What we know:
alpha+beta, 2 domains, 44% helix
Amino acid sequence: LGWRVYVTNPTKSPLSLKQAVRAYRDEYLTERGFARLKGFPLSLTPIYLQREDHITGLIRLLSIGLRVLTLLEFQVRRNLEQNKEKLTGLYIGNPKRETARPTAEILLAAFKEITLFLIEVKNEVYAHLTALSPLQQRILVLLGFPTTIYTQLGGQSFTPE
């Protein structure tokens, strides 16, 4: 066994030991968000910004990014749980490994090989996207998007401005 010390600021109504322990057990959820802000992929690291509004804007933008990552993760995990499914193929070194709780970072990494080619011919630009793998298609469905959201981007042509 062991000891664990819980310290907090006083609240208006005191917490029972059971309430305090329950609150602190979920603390990692909040801490994970801050770790994401400070580390990969959002990287809120010390940079040289002179104006207060630039600092505020950067933090707001990164917090929106954090919310998007959290929502992406939540949506996929919830749909996997509802369907009683697991995803395979997310882990490069172990393609048969299954998970019902993928992180947003690992889900996004599944899309890193996507390439967009823009080809200009006679003042007209053609777009070509690489095809989605079955895993990528499955992730889009778990996110609640039709696969056509991706496929309709390729094969388009437009005139550059």
